[in-house]
Amino acid sequence: MGSIGNTPPPLSLRPEDRLSKLFAENITAKTLRTAIKHLRDNDPPSNYPEVVPQHGPDTGRYRSRDISFWTCGFFPGCIYSLLERLIRYPSSMEMSADNGTKLSMLRIKLEELGRRWSDPIHSQSCLTNTHDMGFIMMPHMRPRWELYHDEAALQCIVTSASNLATRFSPVVRAIRSWDEDIFAIVTSGRGKPGNYIVIIDSMCNLDLLFYAAAHTGNTRLAAIAETHARTLLTSHLRPEPSKPREGFFGRMFSTSHVVNFDCSTGEVDEKLTVQGFSATSTWSRGQAWGILGYAQTYAWTGKAEFLDAACGLAEYFLYMLETAPECVEREVQGPHGELKRTGRYVPLWDFAAPVNDFSPPLRDTSAGTIAANGLLLLSQLLLSQVNHVLSARYREAAMRIVEDTLAHSLSDEKVRLSWDSDSRLAGVESDSTQIFEAILRNATVSNSPEGAQIVRDHGLVYADYYLIEFGTRLLCERR
């Protein structure tokens, strides 16, 4: 079984060298192809890419969801994360000759496409019926503000945060995730009318509140975010038995997916799942949302209880990867013909689900890429605490997860940018007749018999977004 702590990181390699596929032209070209193709008969966009089936009549092609769906912000987020690389770290973009001219042309094209995919989402800032305002807005509105000083993008963030804050209950001391009608749908009618639903995913929407508070001086937004995070410390985090972990001396935590509160008393009424295996299992993406969300909360507040939570969640996630059964690994051929084992650090969809129900085992690459972002942020935060051992281990763990994910789940189809004789961008060329529009395979939205829909083993827009964003976060370490 693998152990991240036993293998020293190859310090001589830059991220671009060790994770070359993460910075390859294929990533940019696939994003560009999807951006252009899915504007056909959809301009301005009212539907946004979500899942790419690996099987069936729609194999390899994005299915889209309405702009009001919670995933709409991730595809424009992919474009703006690539733009951040182009603007701040142009040398990271793998290109052929005439680099300067081509980079400029590519930047101009992505800027145009980014605006076209992002602009319609301004209209969603008025929503008060969803807690997912952070997912909808931050992946693209934040870089629009930070890269271009786009005042309209900042105002969109502020408006969205104010509307998210209307969902806060001072009795429950948390932000409502799902309204009753949504809860009835996602639980196939099993929802209890009148109860107050909070899901672990909500931790990653708090960044919107903290960000808006920092830019407006509205401390109430930050106070709501901090109160919500503190409530979930006891309602959603489950203490696990301690294990010896290098550099870590705290408590490990797993997570509940859904907590049903009594809205009149704030007491926990029920714990269940909609996307995981069972109410008592650990849905891997939920655990990843917790790692990233608590790391972000600690970054904004500096309060030790949130760092302890983020580290405890991270340790349990890594422990479950390291102790997974041997069948999660498979042999693949390396770049020089050598055989190597991959798959251990590509998370199972749920850490407690029977692993033999699927062959090969059912994964969720989105859980891995989200967790990797949380681990990298934790590593950077721990440096300020002069905890070099844990910082180095989390950075190496994040790198290992992404490295393994690329080896195991990168789509077989590779594409490249096409240029005319004057170095003008002409389009995208594929090396295969089998198109697969997502970058990664093996993402599972849900495989729970308790939920309303089973969507497993697909390409998924937020698996790709967090993969791209991880590369951009790595580059930021140079600054």
Automatic annotation (TrEMBL):
SUPFAM superfamilies given in the database record: Six-hairpin glycosidases
Keywords, ordered alphabetically: Hydrolase
Domain of life: Eukaryota
Record-linked Gene3D superfamilies: 1.50.10.10
Keyword Hydrolase (UniProt): yes
Membrane-crossing residue ranges in chain numbering: none
InterPro entries assigned to the protein according to its UniProt record, in alphabetical order: 6-hairpin_glycosidase_sf, 6hp_glycosidase-like_sf, UG_Glycosaminoglycan_Hydrolase
Protein family (similarity comment): Belongs to the glycosyl hydrolase 88 family.
Protein name: Six-hairpin glycosidase-like protein
Lineage: Eukaryota, Fungi, Dikarya, Ascomycota, Pezizomycotina
